[in-house]
Amino acid sequence: MRAKLLVIISAAALTIAGCSSSEPTASPTKAAPPATTAAGLSAGQQAYLAALSAIDPGLVANEERALSRAKDICADIAGGEFIGAKLNERVAERLSGGDAQITAEQAAKVVALAKANVC
């Protein structure tokens, strides 16, 4: 019953949306994929890694791990549980250790970079 109702509503929406118009509707176009480099990185990913290296070269000692952690930052942002100083502290903890140690202030820069280039 529910499926039948959805089909009826969808058909009505299409009719209202312009199927009765005499003008042809444009077919949907695919968005162009982001430009990638020879290494398979997008321009945003490259920019992120370059800026991350400027903060601390140890942060990009393993580029794959750096990009994976950027995706984790994006997930934290999207989740909404961590915001402001709490997010910066989480990022500082996540990225510190091994090859790099960063402060919450540096983590705030990393968050901004991730938002602008990866998320």
What's the helix and strand layout?
Layout: H1 2-19, H2 43-55, H3 63-79, H4 84-95, H5 104-117
Helix pairs in contact: 2-5, 3-4, 4-5
Overview of this protein structure:
The chain is an all-alpha fold. Helix content is 62%, strand content 0%. The chain contains 5 helices and no strands. Helix 2 (43-55) runs antiparallel to helix 5, helix 3 (63-79) packs antiparallel against helix 4 (84-95) and helix 4 packs across helix 5 (104-117). The longest helix is centred in the first third of the chain and has 18 residues, at 2-19. It is globular and about 35 Å long. The two termini are 40 Å apart.
Computed CA radius of gyration, to the nearest angstrom: 22 Å
Overall mean pLDDT: 77
Biggest sheet statistics: none
Helical residue percent band: 55-70%
- Report the principal-axis shape: globular
Gap from first CA to last CA: 40 Å
| Topology as a string of helices (H) and strands (E) | HHHHH
Structural class based on helices, strands and sheet pairing: mainly alpha
For the secondary structure, the number of strands is 0
Count of helices?
A: 5
* Low-confidence sequence ranges: 1-38
Strand content: under 5%
Main attributes of the structure:
119 residues, 5 helices
Describe the structure concisely for a colleague.
The chain is mostly helical and about 120 residues long. It has helices at about 1-20, 45-55, 65-80, 85-95, 105-115.
